[in-house]
């Protein structure tokens, strides 16, 4: 699930839906595999089903390598309703499954043969029999989008709300695949638009995620209306999905029509639809949500301590989106989430150097610190955006931060400091982090030894030795020592020449 520095790109529901999608691909592959007949064998079968004499002499126990009986083969090799009746009268069972898990009815539906479907049903085939994946013939019709096959099955009493192994109804499947006419027909026969799938997903969730605008409208307006605020197991509403995937037309439809959609609702991760639009760089969707529904979502933080502004900085590839959010005058460029991290932290962590430059130029403070909220107060590890960039290996951003020319860099420091003296008279908002009096090394840069972290704010003339230490050794000064030990005037510290040893060592 990621860490406090970054929201995970995939949720549990995403992983499940990926598996569901893959499972339907496998189903189609297995159906296609059943249709693969060797050329020589196929020619012979076509001869059998094309000649009454040859058909009358056929071995009724004939099976292919995939376990297809003559009844299965009749549905894919040119058989007709007369052949179906004859084979079933001679004892061939329509319930027999191929090795891939399908009945003759499944194959007839997959081939969209209304004549054979009707003949199988009139001869006693079970319209509700399930095959591989818990699929009925109506599920197969919904997968393929075969309108005529769907109509025949429904006319013969197929259960319109039957669920497969992942609790998808035919309506779920037709909405997922974008089969508009099949969806319309299923609704005509009373399909329930609010049945939940395995993870609480309704057909409207699927149509919204896939961007099928006409199907979304059908589900909302046709017959029993879909619940536009229905939540899945992770509390996503349809608006979350169309916002995330950038389906602007569905977003606009849901928000503008008189549907009482809740635009600022959050999922279990605390994400509003605006969060998801920003995480995925959907500028037009973000603009639509704010213009129609207001700025309430801009102030909401998710469980990762991120507002929509943080989300846009995490995406980082749309400076226009970031600028638009800032222009609402609701978002402070230096707003810190509960863990202290800013939009600049997010941009640095994810390597968006152009956005980092933009944020710095517009007043982002690189010295604000974040800390892991899971740690106790005594274990705080305060980290600046430079440290986040360094952790992820974004060297160009590290260099930019180190050398970025801020307005205060132009101050005439020499007027406020004396050779060998201190910089206490420098006017600075960060004065508390500066050395206040002359002394030896243990008094320098308290921001280092108080939390054992890299100093990033200022170093006055007395901290120069520590700067030199870090530059020459590549180590953080005093990082291996506890604050009390460093500040103890009796501590047995001996500093060797960096030129000779390359480090400062504790003689103990």
Note down, in words, how this protein is organized:
The chain is mainly α and 508 residues long. It has a two-stranded antiparallel ribbon with strand order 1-2. The protein contains 27 helices and 2 strands. It is 45% helix and 1% strand. α12 (203-210) packs antiparallel against α13 (213-221) and α20 (343-349) runs antiparallel to α21 (353-361). The longest helix is centred in the first third of the chain and has 24 residues, at 12-35. Among the domains are: 7-159, Ankyrin repeat-containing domain (Serine Threonine Protein Phosphatase 5, Tetratricopeptide repeat, Alpha Horseshoe); 332-407, Alpha Horseshoe (Serine Threonine Protein Phosphatase 5, Tetratricopeptide repeat), CATH 1.25.40.
Counting DSSP E segments of at least 2 residues, the number of strands comes to 2
- The outline comes out as elongated
Q: CATH homologous superfamily name of the domain at 7-159?
A: Ankyrin repeat-containing domain
Percent range for helical residues? 40-55%
Order of strands in the sheet with the most strands? Answer: 1-2
What portion of residues belong to β-strands? under 5%
Tell me the major beta sheet: 2 strands, antiparallel
The whole-number mean of residue pLDDT values reads 84
Using only CA atoms, what is the Rg?
Answer: 34 Å
The total count of helices amounts to 27
Subcellular location: Cytoplasm; Nucleus
EC number: 2.7.11.1
Organism: Tupaia chinensis (Chinese tree shrew)
Protein name: Serine/threonine-protein kinase TNNI3K
Layout of SSEs?
Elements: H1 12-35, H2 39-50, H3 52-56, H4 70-76, H5 81-89, H6 104-110, H7 114-122, H8 137-144, H9 147-155, H10 170-177, H11 180-188, H12 203-210, H13 213-221, H14 238-244, H15 248-256, H16 273-279, H17 283-293, H18 308-315, H19 319-327, H20 343-349, H21 353-361, H22 385-391, H23 395-403, H24 446-449, H25 464-473, H26 483-487, E1 493-494, H27 498-501, E2 505-506
Antiparallel strand pairs: 1-2
């Amino acid at each position: 699930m990621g860490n406090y520095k970054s929201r995970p790109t995939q949720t549990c529901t995403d992983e499940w839906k990926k598996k569901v999608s893959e499972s339907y691909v496998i189903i189609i592959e297995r159906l296609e595999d059943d249709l693969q007949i060797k050329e020589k064998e196929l020619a012979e079968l076509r001869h059998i089903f094309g000649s009454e004499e040859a058909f009358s002499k056929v071995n009724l126990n004939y099976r292919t390598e995939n376990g297809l009986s003559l009844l299965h083969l009749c549905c894919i090799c040119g058989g007709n309703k007369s052949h179906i009746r004859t084979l079933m009268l001679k004892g061939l069972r329509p319930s027999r499954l191929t090795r891939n898990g399908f009945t003759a009815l499944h194959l007839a539906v997959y081939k969209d043969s209304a004549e054979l479907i009707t003949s199988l049903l009139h001869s006693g085939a079970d319209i509700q029999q399930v095959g591989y994946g818990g699929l009925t013939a109506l599920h197969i019709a919904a997968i393929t989008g075969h309108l005529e096959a769907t109509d025949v099955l429904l006319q013969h009493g197929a259960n319109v709300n039957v669920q497969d192994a992942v609790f998808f109804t035919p309506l779920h499947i037709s909405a997922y695949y974008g089969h508009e006419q099949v969806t319309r027909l299923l609704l005509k026969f009373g399909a329930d638009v609010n049945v939940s799938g395995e993870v609480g997903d309704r057909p409207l969730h699927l149509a919204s995620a896939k961007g099928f605008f006409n199907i979304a409208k059908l589900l909302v307006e046709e017959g029993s209306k879909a619940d536009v605020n229905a939540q899945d197991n992770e509390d996503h509403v349809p608006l979350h999905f169309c916002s995330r995937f950038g389906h602007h037309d569905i977003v606009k439809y849901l928000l503008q029509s008189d549907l009482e959609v809740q635009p600022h609702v959050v999922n279990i991760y605390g994400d509003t639809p605006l969060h998801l639009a920003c995480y995925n760089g959907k500028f037009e969707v973000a603009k639509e949500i704010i213009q129609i529904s207001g700025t309430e979502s801009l102030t909401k933080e998710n469980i990762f301590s991120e507002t929509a502004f943080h989300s846009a900085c995490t995406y980082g590839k749309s400076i226009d989106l970031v600028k638009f959010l800032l222009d609402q005058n609701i978002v402070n460029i230096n707003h810190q989430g509960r863990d202290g991290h800013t939009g600049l932290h997010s941009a640095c962590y994810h390597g968006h150097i152009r956005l980092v430059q933009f944020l710095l130029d517009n007043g982002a403070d690189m010295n604000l610190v974040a800390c892991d909220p899971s740690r106790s107060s005594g274990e705080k590890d305060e980290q600046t955006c430079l440290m986040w960039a360094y952790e992820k290996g974004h060297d160009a951003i590290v260099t930019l931060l180190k050398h970025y020319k801020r307005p205060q860099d132009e101050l005439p420091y020499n007027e406020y400091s004396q050779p060998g003296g201190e910089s206490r008279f420098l006017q600075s908002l960060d004065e508390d982090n500066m050395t206040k009096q002359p002394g030896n090394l243990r008094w320098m840069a308290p921001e280092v030894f108080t939390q054992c972290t890299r100093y990033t704010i200022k170093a006055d003339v007395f901290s120069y030795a520590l700067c030199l230490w870090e530059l020459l050794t590549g180590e953080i000064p005093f990082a291996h020592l506890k604050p009390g030990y460093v500040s103890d005037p009796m501590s047995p510290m001996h500093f060797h020449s960096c030129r000779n040893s390359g480090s400062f060592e504790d003689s103990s």
